Amino acid sequence: RIWRATAEDIKILRKAPYKYPLPIEMPGTIVIRIVRLSEPVTSPISRAIANAQFGIREDERWRLLFWGFLCSGVLCSAGLWQLYRMKWKADLIEKRRSRLSMPMTVVTGSPFPWTDDLESWAYRLVELRGVYDLRREMKVGPRPGLSRDKPGYNIVCPLVLEDGTRVLINRGHINFEYAEADVRREIPEWLSVRAVIDPGEIPNFRWLNPLGRLKNRPDDNMFHSMRAEDLAQRSGAPNIQACSQAVLNAFDAIYDEDKYLPPNMRRRRFTSEFDMKGKKDYLLFWADEFTHFNYAMQWFGMAALAAVMTVSKFIQVSRWRF
After folding, report:
1. Which of 72, 183, 275, 311 has its CA 20 to 30 A from that of 120?
2. Global pTM?
3. Residue 185 Ramachandran class (φ > 0 left, ψ -120 to 50 alpha, else beta)
4. What's the pLDDT tens digit per position in 89-115?
5. CB atoms within 10 A of CB 285
6. Mean of pLDDT over the chain
């Protein structure tokens, strides 16, 4: 029912607190509303539901504004982090490209050129001549390998140089069935190895990455990550300090007896057993600098959308009248 309100009624009702509970919360009660006859009269139920929204009471709109901009700021920070990653990845790729294009260095013994200066020699090309100590092969893994359907291990083997010192060589990935040297029927022979100097694996976000939580156990000959300082403990190297600074990833090898044979008859590392990264593979990442830029734009887009929605809602609730 509608009654014409007097000035005194309006004055009394306006001093009362606004209450718009849902009908289910007030059974058997009488609801009194002030309406203008010039405006359409809405349903009390729909009005109660509309007035139940967050942001129209006291300081709720300011809390809405705070949390909305906080959410937008977090999203924007994620975008800035991706831009930082983009620059870092671009610098890393350029660093690797320039180092890989430098002339190859021939190494005959220890101390190595990169000893105590690994940062300046990381991803440089080197050539070494020696003999693999197959008795001290170390299996790192298990790993999925370059081909996901061929799981196995990365084989790290000490290479004994002409002066008797040793260096760690990552021979590549090999399937489980060929992981043991006896199965491959290899014998120690003199060979020349071309490799890339790798400072080793240091997983990102160790608290999230299972590889970072698992520790190598050199005493048990169990290795989960390519950490030179751990692998060197099983190498038997007299120069263990220099040996523990880097792992060299082989990308080519030729045995001395094969030097004068045609290329298609040489026992190179390109065999059915070993699978090793080439020089170009060091420039490939699952997320390059362009991928990070796309991620940054997505984060910035979500931040802008959150900010627009927050401002729009803030304006809406600020204009709200009970």
Report:
1. 275
2. 0.71
3. left
4. 999 999 999 999 999 999 998 889 998
5. 12
6. 83
